[in-house]
Design a protein that fits this description.
By secondary structure, the chain is an all-beta fold. It contains no helices and 8 strands. Strand 7 (99-104) and strand 8 form a beta hairpin.
Length: 115
């Protein structure tokens, strides 16, 4: 995250960068390459950060690879997170499921859309 300085609109980092924890990434050799990139980054109802990763490890795992929903818990004291605060839910059912987007309903239930 960043802090916005009001008088000059400068952004300064809050804490250290946090990796998206995509697993081992491979160099594409298959034309079906599907990048291990974040499809959506957003907030949970509790204020934590959620990231959908389409394919963990990249295209060599497509179409049978599994993506994940990564939740980074935010420290309420200073607003930071770290890789130690990561909860990663691997999506493997049904096989080949690719999490793409998410939302929460009015009761806080997670709704996931596949690619």
């Amino acid at each position: 995250g960043f802090h916005l300085t009001g008088y000059n609109c400068m952004l300064s980092p809050i804490g250290d960068p946090v990796e998206l924890s995509q697993g081992e990434t491979v160099t594409p050799t298959d034309p079906n390459f599907f990048p291990a990139t974040a499809a959506q980054i957003g907030f949970t109802p509790e204020g934590n950060i959620m990231v959908t990763i389409k394919i963990n490890g990249g295209g060599q795992n497509f179409p049978s690879g599994s993506g994940s929903l990564n939740t980074y818990f935010i420290d309420p004291e200073d607003g930071t997170t770290s890789e130690d605060d990561l909860d990663q839910l691997v999506i493997s059912d049904p096989p080949g499921a690719i999490p793409f987007s998410f939302d929460f309903d009015d009761k806080g239930n997670l709704l996931v859309i596949e690619a």
